[in-house]
Specification:
2 domains; 43% helix; 3-stranded antiparallel β-sheet; two-stranded antiparallel ribbon
Length: 225
C-alpha cells in the first residue's frame, strides 16, 4: 500500500490543469507542493479557515505604509520611474502606487519595495477567475506558494522567486547609481513599437495600473526579451 494511503495527508484544496489530458481537476496540495487528486470516495477532514497564525517577528512594511485595505484609494498616486514612462510594458512592470503626498526626491528603495509588494498583494486579492495556485504553477511551477491570504502569498513569492525580487533590485540600482540600463532594454523593436509619443498623464497611468491583471503582471516579470 502506498504511503499516501497509509497516512492521512494535510494540505489545501486547490485545482490544477491535468498534465495528461489538460482538464481542470480538484485535489489536495500538501506543504511540500505535491498534488493529490480527489476522487469519489476519498475521505477528507475539513479544518477551519481561520487557523492560528504565528506571531509576526518583525513589522510588515506593507502594513505600515498602506494598512489593510484591499483597494487603491484616491489618496494614492500612480508612479513609475522617469526613464520608462514612455514605454507601456516597462511602466506597468515597475509602476506602483504611492501615498499622494510623497515628494519625488524622497522615494527610496524601502518605500518602493513596500509599494511593489502592495501591488503584488492587490493583484493576488483581485484575481477571481483562475485559482492563484494554477497561475503560479503556470508561470513558476510553484503552486505550493498559493497558501494563505494575499499578503502571505505575496511574501512567499518574494522570498522564493527571483523574478519577483528582480524589479526591486533594478529600481535600487537606478536610484543608487542612476543606471537606466538596469530598468530593461528600451531600444528593442518590441519596445520601440510600445514607446508612446509622450508618457501618460497621472490619471492615465493610474488607469493603466488599475487595469493590470495578475497574469499580465507576471508575464511582464518573466519576459526576458
Amino acid at each position: 500500500m502506498k504511503k499516501s494511503q497509509e497516512q492521512p495527508l494535510v494540505g489545501k484544496i486547490t485545482t490544477r490543469i491535468c498534465p495528461t489530458c489538460g482538464h481542470h481537476e480538484i485535489g489536495l496540495m500538501t506543504i511540500d507542493g505535491s498534488f493529490h487528486p480527489l476522487k469519489p470516495g476519498s475521505m477528507a477532514q475539513v479544518f477551519p479557515l481561520s487557523l492560528p497564525q504565528e506571531p509576526e517577528t518583525s513589522p510588515d512594511p506593507v502594513k505600515i505604509q498602506y494598512g489593510n485595505v484591499h483597494e487603491y484609494t484616491a489618496e494614492m498616486k500612480a508612479w513609475a520611474p522617469e526613464p520608462v514612462r514612455k514605454i507601456r510594458t516597462l511602466r506597468l512592470k515597475y509602476g506602483v502606487f504611492l501615498p499622494e503626498n510623497t515628494p519625488e526626491h524622497t522615494i527610496d528603495i524601502s518605500l518602493y519595495k513596500a509599494a511593489f509588494l502592495r501591488k503584488l498583494e492587490m493583484l493576488l486579492a483581485q484575481e477571481k477567475e483562475i485559482p492563484v495556485a494554477v497561475i503560479l504553477d503556470r508561470f513558476f511551477t510553484a503552486p505550493h506558494l498559493a497558501s494563505g491570504d494575499s499578503r502571505q502569498i505575496a511574501q512567499s513569492m518574494w522570498e522564493e522567486l527571483d523574478e519577483i525580487r528582480r524589479p526591486v533590485a533594478d529600481i535600487s540600482d537606478w536610484l543608487n547609481q542612476g543606471d537606466e540600463a538596469s530598468l530593461g532594454k528600451t531600444d528593442t523593436p518590441e519596445k520601440k513599437e510600445d514607446r508612446g509619443m509622450s508618457p501618460p498623464s497621472p490619471p492615465g497611468l493610474r488607469d493603466e495600473l488599475q487595469a493590470l491583471t495578475l497574469e499580465d503582471f507576471l508575464s511582464l516579470l518573466t519576459d526576458t526579451s
